[in-house]
Design a protein that fits this description.
mainly alpha, two-stranded antiparallel sheet, 2% strand
């Protein structure tokens, strides 16, 4: 089980490297990209066949692939160190993995909102490509979260970003607390 855990960790790392390399498509990494593609793409492509992993132009198949690896790796680690594993422990591992991915995105959006607020406060030239892309990412989320709270009143984009950031931070803090309680309950299940 320890060996399986190590192999799954290395494979997860290779998938992560493969993802990072796709961000730099203009750079030629030669055989490294070809080898990584042959190793990782069959596994990732299995998840790409599921339409529900494609939401609003985002392909979440890589995240689902990594979460699945993390779940199996965590189960292997628990078996390796405890000798057994319970249904409650498996549920706790699954909840932890899914919550971890969810909180990763909440944290990412919080960081992007803070960067955008800081840029606005310090008078950054928001006509630059970086700020435009940042707004393209944030505006739909900010609008979706803040509009129901505004109840028809006008809210400036900067104030909406601040409200969004506060709600996002509260969701992270409260959510992590609730998830940790749930995981504790699941681990304590007698079966």
């Amino acid at each position: 089980m320890q060996l399986l855990s190590i192999v799954l960790s290395i494979y997860s790392f290779l998938i992560f490297v493969r993802i990072i390399l796709t961000w730099f498509q203009t750079t030629d990494f030669g055989q490294v990209t070809v080898i990584l593609s042959r190793i990782t793409d069959p596994y990732i492509n299995w998840f790409r066949q599921f339409d529900f992993l494609k939401l609003a132009g985002l392909d979440l198949s890589v995240i689902a692939a990594l979460i699945s690896l993390w779940i199996v790796r965590s189960i292997a680690v628990n078996i390796a160190y405890a000798g057994t594993i319970s249904f409650g422990m498996i549920l706790a591992i699954i909840v932890d993995a899914i919550a971890g991915a969810f909180f990763f995105f909440l944290t990412l959006f919080l960081i992007l909102a803070v960067i955008r607020i800081a840029g606005s406060l310090f008078g950054a030239n928001t006509s630059l490509r970086f700020w435009i892309v940042l707004d393209q990412i944030l505006e739909p989320l900010v609008h979706r979260v803040v509009t129901p709270l505004a109840r028809g009143r006008f809210v400036s984009y900067q104030n909406a970003l601040i409200i969004f950031g506060g709600i996002d931070l509260a969701a992270i803090l409260i959510g992590r607390f609730l998830v940790s309680l749930l995981i504790g309950l699941l681990r304590g299940l007698p079966f």
